[in-house]
Amino acid sequence: MKNALLKIAIRCLKPFIPKSGPTNKILVVATTALGDTLWITPSLHSLRKSFPNAQIHVLTSPIGLQILQHNPHVDKLLLFKKPLSLWRKLLKERFETVLIFHTSQRLVLPICSLLGASKVVGTVGINKGLDALLTDPIPKTHEHEIVRRLKIAHAIGAATATETLSFFLQPEELLPPRSPGLWIALHPGSKDAFKRWPYFAELGRLLKKTISCEILITGGPEEQALMEEIAKQIPGAHLDSPNQPFRQFAALIQQMDLVISNDTGPVHLACALDRPVIGIYASTDPTLCGPHLAKRAIAISKKAPCTPCLKRKCRLPFCFLQIGPEEVARSAKELLRG
After folding, report:
1. Which residues contact 7 (CB under 8 A, 6 or more apart)?
2. 257 found inside a domain
3. Are residues 190 and 147 in the same domain?
4. Checking CA distances to 115, which of 94, 159, 192, 273 falls within 20 to 30 Å?
5. What angle do CA 109, 112, 115 make, to 5 degrees?
6. CATH number for 64
């Protein structure tokens, strides 16, 4: 019903929207979470390299604003909020091309289809039933999300300049040196409970026993109870502040000698900062969403035994029982030796 109403509104409004013409302006759309936003950075690099004179604007989420702050490949960042006033603002920019990398909100694609752009490019099957609003639809295939985004850039003539994630900390954002020693961050939380590996406390104790290291437990505000519970079970563990600003958290991750995390954003942040990282996967496929071409990253993965996987409906992700703390500790030692 929602889509039907949106399509009727678009048909009524579209005849009154002037075509933008050759303005050399590109709107990149990625109104999603931490990892999803970092996955667009190779495409931004490739777009800038291929079209050095283009104006590249990015429509993004609140976390996206923080991730892409100081990114040299972006001319302007725009926050998705107040759809009507945002549409009026975007319409004035006269974008020639719109690239829909990923959106979480139903209204984003309809708004972009009413900007007068000659091309609205995106992948079919992930647009909440609104694929018909794309002028240049790209078939969805089994490939990493970074590569899928790069294919959208290829559709307008960009060549791949890199497939490596990037994050740009400024000198004034760097933190003072930590106390000497080897520092390992454990990130036991995840927005989705079915992605939470249950053995972080055991892993922390094993690492403390077999490696001379300091353990730091990280997480967000909604994960504070989990962080405290795991820290209590690891002698001498340090507890990160779950309420610190995101870019301060990024500066902290940059100081780590190793990050071990569930399938969630800090895996990709560590990759973007070129830190050694281990991602733990069972119900998700790392070939689609794990570390991609990162030199110091290991994805520990086991095939989920349930078919089909219950995903968010799962209350007992016993698929993770296939991955023990000993296996993760061996990978940690391998990365630290490397």
Report:
1. 130, 132
2. yes
3. no
4. 159
5. 155
6. 3.40.50.2000
- For residue 175, the one-letter residue type is L
Domain presence at residue 159: no
User: Does one domain contain both 332 and 281?
Assistant: yes
How much is the pLDDT for 338?
79
Element (H, E) at 103: strand 97-103
**What residues are paired with 78 via a beta bridge?**
59
Quick: pLDDT tens for 296-327: 999 999 988 887 887 888 877 888 889 999 99
What is the per-residue pLDDT across 270-282, written as a single tens digit (0 to 9) for each? Answer: 999 999 999 999 8
Quote the domain boundaries for residue 238: 171-337
Q: Are 267 and 279 in contact (CB under 8 A)?
A: yes
Among the listed residues 292, 328, 289, the one whose alpha carbon sits nearest the alpha carbon of residue 34:
289
Judge whether 166 lies within some domain: no
Place of tokens 């900062």: 273
Return d(Cα 126, Cα 106) in angstroms, integer: 11
Q: Is residue 160 part of a domain?
A: no
Ordered strands of the 55-60 beta sheet: 76-79, 55-60, 25-31, 97-103, 119-123, 136-138
Quote the radius of gyration of the chain (alpha carbons, Å).
Answer: 21
Give tens-digit pLDDT for 52-80: 999 999 999 999 999 999 999 999 999 99
Cβ 294 vs Cβ 283: under 8 Å: no
Pair 123, 62 in one domain: yes
Per the structure, the count of domains in the chain is 2
Provide the β-strand partners of residue 29: 59, 100
Low-confidence residues of the chain, pLDDT below 70? Answer: none
Same domain, 125 and 225: no
β-pair partners for 57: 27, 76
Q: Which residues of 293-306 are buried (b: 16+ CB within 10 A; e: fewer)?
A: ebebbbbbbeebee
What percent of the chain clears pLDDT 70, i.e. is strictly above it? 100
